Amino acid sequence: MELVNAERQRDATVAEYASNQHSNMDTPVVFAKLPFQFRILAKQGLWKLPFVGWYLKRSGQVPIDASSSRSAIAGLLRGVSALRSGMRLFVFPEGSRTVDGRLQTSASGAAFMAIRAGVPLVPLALVGTYELLPIHVYSLRPRPLKMIVGEPIPTAGLTTKDADALTLKLHDAIGAMYYAHHPEMDVASAGADSSSPE
Predict the structure, then answer these.
(1) 3-12, 158-167, 187-196: which range is least confident on average?
(2) How far apart are CA 154 and CA 119, in angstroms?
(3) Taking the CB of the first residue and of the last residue of the chain, which one, N or C, has fewer CB atoms within 10 A?
(4) Domain boundaries, the chain
């Protein structure tokens, strides 16, 4: 697997990392390639799965329940607390896997947490994981993989009113890296991709 811009991972600054979500292989790739300790924000339903739930709880991962606005905010605030404690956090702003290999709408939760915690937001692009294991496919299709590390997006001076604009900036940064390193994907047909509030 190729890691592009690896030097950007050497910054000791606490930050929130966010990437596109294309496959069940995304999370293993992220855990394999981010060279520091971090927590991942994940759907609370995973905590109910045998062994998986035990591992998530034991390892201190951060659950979020999107069944209501109130419970979703509570999950985001847990993410903020992790960042403020000095722990890096990883999130999938899209919230679910793509069905066609293109970027989806991004929710504003990632931006909200970064702003509230006062940490940079680092865009990541995962290339090849969709082709490796698309949604509703249960056998691997080996192919080269890439993870591209983007420039950190600062949040200093921002308030939560800026979350939507920061979400769009994050979405555009991930998209630019993804499509630049994935030339066979038709960018023009992905023009409807956009960002929206949580």
Answers:
(1) 187-196
(2) 7
(3) N
(4) 2-32+88-190
